[in-house]
Amino acid sequence: MLSAAVSLALSGLGRDALKVALGLVLAVLIAMAFTVSSVIVVLDEILASPIASVPVASTPVTDQPATVRGLEIVALTRSQIGVPYVWGGATPAGFDCSGLVQWTYGQVGVGLPRTAQEQYDATTRIGVDGLRPGDLVFFAQTYPSSDWITHVGIYIGNGLMIGAPTDGDVVRTMPVFNGFWGAHYAGAGRVGG
Length: 193
What we know:
Blueprint (H helix, E strand, L loop, with lengths): L1 H9 L1 H37 L19 H11 L11 E2 L2 E2 L1 H11 L8 H6 L2 E3 L9 E5 L8 E9 L2 E4 L8 E4 L3 H6 E6 L3
Antiparallel strand pairs: 1-2, 3-8, 4-5, 4-8, 5-6, 6-7
Helix pairs in contact: 1-2
């Protein structure tokens, strides 16, 4: 029996079978390597996402308790997550950053001006240690503009905001104090003092 197996292994048919077996082993190893590299890429994307990286803030975040209006503002803003960014948009069909803020505050009966700069000018400055959900966070020079303040988001706590970031994106949660936004952070404001 052993001599028959050796004879088969040494024959052309045996060598072909061995090549197929080695090819299958190689294919399995390549598939495993691809799977492992895919998992690493996915984990890398998760760890690099704004949610996973918050709040590794260079600015300490010590949120103040939310007011009832602040909680209502946050809930209204969360309800718009996923709405597409539209330059000049101020309705649930599409928002830009200041349009989202104006619409959200309008839903609770508070009128705000239209642009991020005007909203900055219309709010009372507060420090990071005084932030509470529903406050506005402002960013400077995020794109070329004659206005200093070029972006606004609604603070939701824990170093996060909800905003409409840019063309091709949607209303979503983002970090305030790190990454791109952290590099452009210009201050916070409270509506109505």
